[in-house]
Amino acid sequence: MPTSPFDRDPSTRRLLDEDYCLSFEGNHLIVERVPYVTAAKVVTYGRLALPVTFSGDVLQDSSGDHRIWFIGEQPCDQNGQPLPGPSPEAHAVTQDLIANFMISSKPKNGGTFANTYDKITSYVRVLSHPAHVLDPTVTATPGAGWTEIPDDLPFVYPDTGTARAGLATMNAKFRGQRIGIIGLGGTGSYILDQVSKTWVDAIDLFDGDVFDNHNAYRAPGAADIDDLKLRPNKAEHFARVYSHMHTGITAHSFFITADNLDQLGDCTFVFVAAADADDKPAILASLRERDIPTIEVGMGIRDEGGRLSGLLAAVNHFPPDMSEAAISTSTGGVDEYDRNIQTADLNCLNAMLAVVNWKKYLTYYAEFEPVDETVYRVFTGTTRSGRDGADASIEEAES
């Protein structure tokens, strides 16, 4: 523990000094061996799990809200009646460790707990009091113990967002994924922004272009002027930026063409956010032959007398339905993507349509039925998803 952030945390040190047995797993501080009473009036032991908050690598010794999660059966009083406070609620501490109950009780002063120590000891008292009535020898302080189970997530710093939301089981669906993003322009960079915040093992970025001022104005974040002066390669620029968070990003400073399709061979999923019109059918055909699921994005925006209109499209190419006909999509027929107007918000929305479809493919999000495409129309503000093929051509934005 001397090298752990918890070594500098006063609440953790105090709990250990008082002989609590603690562990850290899935970005939760876990109190082991908390005595409680079951509905059968049996004294047994459960565990308390508290999502922790980090600022960088510094643990924040504050209670946040007053919720905590319990791993065990329904906690009861000495008569076997359910205690007020604990309510059934599944909360994934890790993919394999699920808490069964959420406990929410404000301190007697009606405010919030001053620190983690006060919060934990308060809930331990609530749970263990009935156990002490039935068996005065039970204790929540069996002797100081510390076990820190490191995760193998591809991040620079702890993903406490997942811990707070209890989404470990859901986020495990991203493990084993190697994502390829072809094109790091407006839409592709926003796709990266979202994918880099998931548990995918690796992300490959493909783009042979340089990152200039106009790119900065339709990409996430704020580029530094000194970086722009260097005219970095797009893939290398975004790999450097997002490697501050995700450890599995690799930049490939070249375009994907019909001549280097082998570069996509290790990908488990590919986003096609830009490609030369002549090469795109070959790229999609190669991905289809390898059964690599793909989402192709495109947008067609035009100036209609001082107001912009058009459509955004995210076209799904998912096995086993990746038909030969699906290779020639609306965005692959002509090189409209590079010529037409683009704005940061529409690039972002186009990326979000694609990312949501990707997460549905992984069964992260629920869906009524699989779709072939999702199209957003600027003028009507409507989104259409369907199974009728990629028939909403970018040229439709011109009509």
Provide an overview of this structure.
It is a single chain. This protein has 2 domains: 5-168, no CATH class; 176-398, Rossmann fold. The protein is built from 12 helices and 17 strands. The protein has helices at 10-17, 116-134, 160-165, 168-171, 186-195, 213-216, 225-229, 234-242, 280-289, 330-333, 336-339, 344-361; strands at residues 21-25, 28-37, 43-51, 54-55, 58-59, 67-71, 86-92, 98-104, 145-148, 178-182, 202-206, 249-252, 269-272, 294-303, 308-317, 373-377, 382-386. The protein has an 8-stranded mixed beta sheet, sandwiched between helices. The chain has a 7-stranded mixed beta sheet with strand order 7-8-6-3-2-1-9. It is elongated, with a radius of gyration of 26 Å. Mean pLDDT is 88; it is low at 325-339 and 389-399.
